[in-house]
Amino acid sequence: MWTPGPTCRCNCYGFPHRLTGGACSGDAWAESYHMHVREYCDSCQLNAGGWCEVGTGQESILHCEAYRMAFRDNDGLNLPINEETFYTQEKEPTCE
Prior knowledge:
Blueprint: E1 7-8, E2 17-18, H1 27-36, E3 47-48, E4 51-52, H2 65-73, E5 78-79, H3 83-88
Parallel strand pairs: 1-5
Antiparallel strand pairs: 1-2, 3-4
């Protein structure tokens, strides 16, 4: 059964789309997560001195702790977004 997982709003496509598919590398999603959420960033191996190696394009999002946890928890994170939108949006409902 397919589960939606986290989605990305980067400029690769004109609509929210799944990560790790097609032209989207997930770097914008990871960078936005690193800037706004940071829940898993402090313990992540890809957090190199305060910057995200996925966000800079050095590593794949498949190795990103935040991506793996967001996908596992199916939390509906729809990034990247600006700070104001992040704090005012409601999470998208998920199918169970």
